């Protein structure tokens, strides 16, 4: 391994308190691994470490008790699984994300796609300090974007249109009392609306009653 000290400083090798032993932190994209990768990481832990796999608070996977002299070969085997080591120190760290619209019925945006793009563009860049990024698919904020250095969550911005049948379902579903139906039309109090999109999904005629940016419209599950 070239410049081993530099790699250890920057990447997912963490010195354990036990002399000569390391934890290796493997990077995921939004916490996703294939069953093949996970199975083989478990096998690496059996062969090089203590037979355990540790899931970190930032959706990475750690293998512990790896002898220093084995770092080169385990790094190569991790690479062969199509995986990279996590990043450490004053850099942009692994992007974490909730499942988003791919799985969650409340999801508004595709967190996995965004995490993949951000991972390719930003992870590992030098920064003045550790920089953490978290993505949530909707304002419920399950990935806690508010307590990361950069946090994003999906929103739908409903705007009222004509043709309402005045069923008032949107009024009932909004926990923030941001919708009121008046004179045959829903009115949105933008200062109360958090952009959860529930009123859009529940409206029996939502494609006509609410307008929202095309990028959001195309992501509403049918
Ligand atoms: S933040 Fe929203 S989309 Fe993501 S898991 Fe939570 S409820 Fe689902
Ligand atoms: S749910 Fe749709 S149709 Fe019903 S009152 Fe609201 S905007 Fe009108
Ligand atoms: S998007 Fe959510 S918060 Fe905003 S008006 Fe609709 S239901 Fe209420």
TrEMBL record:
InterPro entries: 4Fe4S_Fe-S-bd (IPR017896), 4Fe4S_Fe_S_CS (IPR017900), NIR_SIR_4Fe-4S (IPR051329), NiRdtase/SiRdtase_haem-b_fer (IPR005117), Nit/Sulf_reduc_fer-like_dom_sf (IPR036136), NO2/SO3_Rdtase_4Fe4S_dom (IPR006067), NO2/SO3_Rdtase_4Fe4S_sf (IPR045854), NO2/SO3_Rdtase_FeS/sirohaem_BS (IPR006066). One of its GO terms (molecular function) is oxidoreductase activity. Residues 154-183, 184-215 form the 4Fe-4S ferredoxin-type domain. Transmembrane segments: none annotated. Keywords: 4Fe-4S, Heme, Iron, Iron-sulfur, Metal-binding, Oxidoreductase. It holds the Pfam family Fer4_10. It comes from the Bacteria. The keyword rRNA processing does not apply. This is Nitrite and sulphite reductase 4Fe-4S region. It comes from uncultured Sporomusa sp.
